[in-house]
Design goal:
6% helix; disordered N terminus; four-stranded antiparallel beta sheet; 4 helices; 436 residues; mainly beta; single chain
């Protein structure tokens, strides 16, 4: 199972997430983000048939993103002040770290922990999702099964020490009643090292309680000198499927251990990548010169592939250790691989990212980047939104930013597949809508 882990610090200002899965955990200390990432949890991986004609698929995608223009701008910070929020830190203008869309509502979560809901039809803010003065929202999850928003929060009254989850119907939020939701997992003690994990692929929620331990897929035990003990568990009932030891090189640190279905990926410092089939015990290796430790992963369940991110570049691999795709024009803007700026479509055929602008245009537009749409299987860039082609679609009274300003310091990105719109958030706490 895949997830995202978010550390909670003693201060009310949460740190940005390193990846796009759905695990939210607590840490008393400010830990370094785990060196991997997962598929965007708001893009539930639905099983869809991909066209057998690649040229048609590419042409269709090109038309879909052609003539995308800057249409609207929303502000997460209330100009009149948000009187129900008592914490001063929540009043600051901070960057957007997460965007989720459900039907005609766009949710934007700021680094301060404030989450605002906007109505796309009326182009105005509906409400703030925070329902108590000391609530700091850490993450969002749209539950398509019952059309609700799940928020994961910490509270000043609890010294930000435990996670609290709440489910609220989208219809209630549309009516401006975010407090009409109800608490989830109240029986769990979600203090450090507890976490909540939303499994999009299996449609399940797992919790790790500080008092007990419900089933998870891969258990990694403390390393011994020459091996690391592992257990594979069933998500359904926690049954132990396999217990084994994986041999390690002594005195070499483990860069990562990841599980994808029956495949186990293990990489140690300055060693080859090992891909182990836990069912057949078949082991294959990829040379360390070909596969260098990435800063993030995204696993593609539909295509049985995985993306790796390193030094702003993205490449696609299969589980035979073969390089499948290198992208021709997809140099990420942020060197730390902020995967909040990356969206994988439900068909897992397109990747939409905030990228570094071409050098020929940069001197004219300052620090503006571009939004690039590329085919995952071919690496071709199908469309691009930049300062030269993303001019304002309409004259909106809410628009304060120019296209160049809207494309500067983008910190979160979301593609609404139903409405065919791209939403970006920046360091100023502003949301921009790109549409054709």
């Amino acid at each position: 199972m895949e997830g995202r882990r978010i550390s909670a610090s003693p201060s009310p200002s949460p740190r940005p997430r390193p990846c796009n899965g759905r695990r939210v955990s607590l840490s008393v200390n400010k830990k370094r983000p785990r060196p991997h990432a997962y598929v965007n949890t708001f893009n539930k991986l639905l099983k869809r048939e991909i066209s057998s004609k690649p040229c048609f698929s590419i042409s269709n995608a090109h038309e879909k993103f052609r003539n995308m223009r800057l249409e609207e701008e929303y502000d997460t910070r209330d100009p009149k002040g948000h009187c129900s929020v008592a914490l001063p830190v929540l009043m600051k203008r901070t960057k957007i770290i997460e965007i989720v869309a459900a039907h005609d509502i766009v949710f934007a979560l700021a680094h301060s922990g404030v989450c605002a809901a906007f109505n796309r039809e009326k182009n105005k803010r509906i409400c703030f999702v925070n329902v108590s003065p000391d609530e700091v929202i850490r993450s969002l999850f749209y539950n398509k099964n019952n059309d609700s928003l799940i928020t994961v929060s910490v509270y000043a009254s609890d010294n930000f020490s435990s996670l609290k989850c709440r489910s609220t119907k989208i219809e209630y939020i549309r009516r401006g009643k975010p407090d009409a939701g109800f608490a989830l997992f109240e029986s769990e003690s979600l203090k450090w090292p507890g976490f909540v994990e939303f499994d999009d692929v299996n449609g399940k929620v797992l919790t790790y309680s500080a008092q007990d331990s419900p089933g998870i897929m891969l258990l990694i035990f403390s390393r011994s000198s020459g091996h690391i003990p592992l257990k594979i568990l069933s998500i359904e009932d926690g049954t132990v499927l396999k217990t084994f030891n994986h041999l390690l090189h002594r005195n070499k640190k483990v860069d990562f251990i990841e599980q994808f279905n029956e495949k186990l990926l293990v990489k140690q410092e300055n060693e080859n990548l090992q891909i182990l089939d836990v069912q057949s015990s078949e082991l294959m290796e990829v040379s360390r010169t070909e596969f260098m430790t990435p800063s993030a992963f995204i696993f593609l369940y539909e295509n049985q592939l995985f993306l790796t991110f390193r030094n702003r570049t993205v490449v696609v691999w299969n589980f035979r250790g073969e390089l499948v795709t290198s992208f021709e024009d997809h140099l990420l803007c942020h060197p730390d691989c902020n995967t909040n700026n990356i969206y994988i479509t439900s068909d897992q055929d397109l990747i939409i990212s905030y990228c570094k602008a071409e050098s020929d245009d940069q001197w004219m537009e300052g620090n503006a980047g571009s939004i690039n749409i590329s085919n995952i299987l071919t690496g071709k860039c199908l469309a691009k939104i930049n300062t030269s082609n993303g001019s304002h679609k309409i004259d909106s009274s809410q628009m304060r930013s120019s296209v160049a300003e809207a494309l500067e310091d983008v910190t979160a990105l979301f593609y609404d597949e139903e409405r065919n719109e791209i939403y970006t958030g920046n360091r100023q706490g502003l949301i921009h809508v790109w549409s054709n």
